[in-house]
Structure formats: C-alpha cells, structure tokens
Amino acid sequence: MIEQEQIRTDIKRQLNSYRELREEHNQLADELARLEALMRTPSGPNLDGVPRGSDISKPVERFVVKHMDLERKYRAQINNLLAGQAKIEDIIEALEPTERRLARYRYIDGLSWENVCEKMNYSWRQTHRIHSAMLDKLVAAELEKRGQAPREEVLT
Question: What are the CA-CA distances from residue 129 to residues 7, 52, 135, 141 (Å)?
Fold first, then answer.
C-alpha cells in the first residue's frame, strides 16, 4: 500500500512538472532566438578613440565559438525538456477522453480546481472522483509495468 501511494505521489509530481518543463522550454527557445538575432545584427564601428590592431577576426571568432557553445547547450536542454514533455503526454494519452480533458486542464493549463470544475461542467465532487479514478488507472498501469498486481484498495 505504501508503494502504491508513493507511485501515486510520483505520478502527480510528474504531471505537475509539465508546466515548468513547458515554461523552461519556451524560455530557452526565446534565448535561442535572441542569440540568432544577435548573430545576424552587424556590429558597428568602434568609435571610442582607442587605437586597435588590424586583427578584427579574433574577437569575432571568439564570439562565434561562444555563440555556438551556448546554442549547443540550449538545444541539448530543449531536447531533454521535450523528452520529459513527451513522457507526460504519453501518460495522458493512455486515459479516457474525460480524464484527458481533466488532466490537461489541471496539469498542462494549470487551472485551479474551481476552474476545472467550471470548464468541465461537473461538480467539485464529480471532478475529484474522475481525478481519483484517473490516478488509480495510472498507478495500476505503473504497477503492471513493474510486473506487480495492483492492490484492491487502489482500484476502488
């Protein structure tokens, strides 16, 4: 029973993490766009009056290398975030349509329980009944993946 409660808690944590993953993905995508725009913007002449050598390519090369390193890191992070989002989407897709709607409203859109009830046109009690049944199915599926049979208390 303790293991099933731990699985249930882990599933809820995973579902709750979706919004954070999506927000971080959007932030990194914005940063990539900013870096790309910076690369396309020509730099103007330096008019500060300080004499400089004629080797202008070294600062440009360093800038390009730094940009490429950052871009590579951001793209790797985005790929990891997308993998996490895909895993959560797989969890949601295994549910019934009503349960999927509830999961999307609550965990993806981040709506409060009151707003979920309103959107679904269900009472508070019915909404939570659907949510509980949804979590029970996800726990049972996780236990099945582990080769364990769910205990009867979880399925009722």
Answer: 19, 73, 10, 18
Work out the number of other CB atoms within 10 angstroms of the CB of residue 71.
Answer: 15
Those residues with Cβ within 8 angstroms of residue 96's Cβ, 6 or more apart along the chain or in another chain: 134
* Res 152 pLDDT > 80: no
- Residue 59: closest CA among 77, 46, 50: 46
The whole model's pTM is what? 0.64
Residues 6+ apart with CB under 8 A from 41: none
- Per residue in 80-121, pLDDT (tens digit) is 888 888 888 888 888 999 999 999 999 888 899 999 999 999
Rounded Cα distance, 122 and 116, in Å: 8
pLDDT computed for residue 156 by the predictor: 43
Give the Cα separation of 101 and 62 in Å (integer): 49
d(CA 62, CA 52): 17
Q: d(Cα 41, Cα 142) in Å, to the nearest integer?
A: 51
